[in-house]
């Protein structure tokens, strides 16, 4: 399920933009900026197909982690279209960068690094790199876009807006590339949150359709993106003391800069304690948590759903579509901040400091 499909029934300024891109020195980078439901993906599909018609090599960097075309969600992805395509969702990923959430407000650094890393890879094999971005254009979204533009240095930054709402953002980004402003097409349709959630549900379901449960040795593949597993394991006396003080069932724990424990709350226990010197993680928060298999270059081989951790044996059960050969390339298992089922149902987001 995709919201945007290729069409040539577009406003005339899209053809003018196309001619402007053709005049850029190659290889060139074009970044698309616009609020949610402004038509960025439709514009990207139009430009990519037209450039392919002209015989140019095109790369697509899909950075819209919430409304991803290239699977899976919660990653930044790169694809090289081999020919005409109707929807970005048809494209097969060449590489991913793991973000681990569909709500990236607390991950603006990772978002910028991911776009930069994949753009650099794309430039090795493409004449034009088209970079789609999230609809997050206010608040911290302004800083996210600034970081992306500062790192990538696009040759052209295309703004899609309705009533001049991006004028400040355009001023912020103008030092980093030539700016072009287009009006949002009258054909662009706003989608409700429930519609966007249903689109994501279908994409999750599709990605995990052929997944299988694998055992991951956490002593061989380093768990990252979390405070868990850092420092020395707690001795039984320390677990007993923490259990008595906070009235928790302490499942596992470590002592590094501070105490970090995985706990289940007993009746009457203190809830959600994350203050120094004790950081507590609810055992339930780890169930159905999105994780990424990361290779030695820091890129994501694919995603998985964490089902169970045996802390004593340092083994994790993960549902993933990756093959054993692909998993063998992983050096990290990076913890995300969204819980999701293989059916596509999202169980909720975690705060960045929650793990």
Automatic annotation (TrEMBL):
- Provide this UniProt record's keywords sorted from A to Z: ATP-binding, Kinase, Nucleotide-binding, Transferase
UniProt KW Kinase keyword: yes
Pfam families reported for this sequence: CLP1_P (PF16575)
InterPro entries linked: AAA+_ATPase, Clp1/Grc3, CLP1_P, P-loop_NTPase
Single GO BP term: RNA processing
Q: Which reaction does it catalyse?
A: a 5'-end dephospho-ribonucleoside-RNA + ATP = a 5'-end 5'-phospho-ribonucleoside-RNA + ADP + H(+); a 5'-end dephospho-2'-deoxyribonucleoside-DNA + ATP = a 5'-end 5'-phospho-2'-deoxyribonucleoside-DNA + ADP + H(+)
Cofactor(s) the protein requires to work: a divalent metal cation
Q: What is its EC number?
A: 2.7.1.78
An example Gene Ontology molecular-function term = ATP binding
| SUPFAM superfamilies xrefs | P-loop containing nucleoside triphosphate hydrolases
Where does the sequence pass through the membrane?
A: none
Q: Which residues form the AAA+ ATPase domain?
A: 26-345
Which function does this protein serve? Polynucleotide kinase that can phosphorylate the 5'-hydroxyl groups of both single-stranded RNA (ssRNA) and single-stranded DNA (ssDNA). Exhibits a strong preference for ssRNA.
Q: What is this protein called?
A: polynucleotide 5'-hydroxyl-kinase
Organism of origin is Thermococcus celer Vu 13 = JCM 8558
